[in-house]
Amino acid sequence: MKITVIQGPNLNMLGTREQNIYGPIKLEQIHSQMRDVAGQNGFEIEFFQSNLEGEIVDKIQECFGDSHGIIINPAAYTHTSVAIRDAISAVNLPTIEVHISNIYRREEFRHKSMTAPVVAGQITGFGPFGYHMAMVGMMQILNEIKMAKAQQLEQAKKQQQ
Ligand code: DQA
Q1: At what angle are helices 53-63 and 82-91 packed, to 10 degrees?
Q2: Distance from the CA of 16 to the CA of which of 23, 75, 138, 156 falls in 20 to 30 A?
Q3: At a CB cut-off of 8 Å and minimum separation 6, what does 45 contact?
Q4: Strand partners, 71
Q5: Is residue 113 a contact partner of residue 79, using CB atoms and an 8 Å limit?
Q6: C-alpha gyration radius of the chain
Q7: Does ligand 1 come within 6 angstroms of the Cβ of 73?
Q8: CB 88 within 8 A of CB 22
Q9: What is the CATH architecture assignment of 2-160?
Q10: pLDDT tens for residues 37-65?
């Protein structure tokens, strides 16, 4: 099963950008840890970062039929993007929203998430470790879906007999 990780604007500057808020860890380091966890648990993983809203919408749409779950940090678009929210809603895949900082402790304009109502869950304020938490959460969701499908198949087979 495949998990797609989508990173929004300015997250390519992690490690350099506002270290007092986001810490010293670079995006590649976060992704490398996520790749390890995915590999150890038999999941395929793909990473995508863009500073452009339309490219993020395109990537979410590409996940339809190609990926089983999405981990997304929409960054600044969290607070503004109806288009990203609608794309998440449209593909209807299990999605987890991650924020490195606690958006509810920061400026008031960050308290509103456009995407929160259309995701399975939101992880905010745990630093880069939030991505690991999202991996654990996503793997649990996907394993539950897999088990439910296997059970349905089993039941269908029994009914045919
Ligand atoms: C962020 C929080 C957003 O408010 C901000 O615009 C970001 C990063 C976070 O990960 O804490 O770019 O999503």
Answers
A1: 10
A2: 138
A3: 2, 3, 4, 5, 34, 35, 38, 39
A4: 5, 96
A5: yes
A6: 17
A7: yes
A8: no
A9: 3-Layer(aba) Sandwich (3.40)
A10: 999 999 999 999 999 999 999 999 999 99
Q: Is 95 in the pocket of ligand 1 (CB under 6 A)?
A: no
Q: Are 3 and 138 in contact (CB under 8 A)?
A: yes
**Residue 132 CA, ligand 1 centroid: distance in Å:** 17
Q: Is 10 in the pocket of ligand 1 (CB under 6 A)?
A: yes
Distance 111 CA to ligand 1 centre (A): 11
| Catalytic residue flag (residue 22) | yes
Summarize pLDDT for 100-151 with one digit per residue, the tens. Answer: 999 999 999 999 999 999 999 999 999 999 999 999 999 999 999 999 999 9
Domain ranges of the chain: 2-160
The predicted model scores a pTM of: 0.96
CA of 154 to the centre of ligand 1 (A): 44
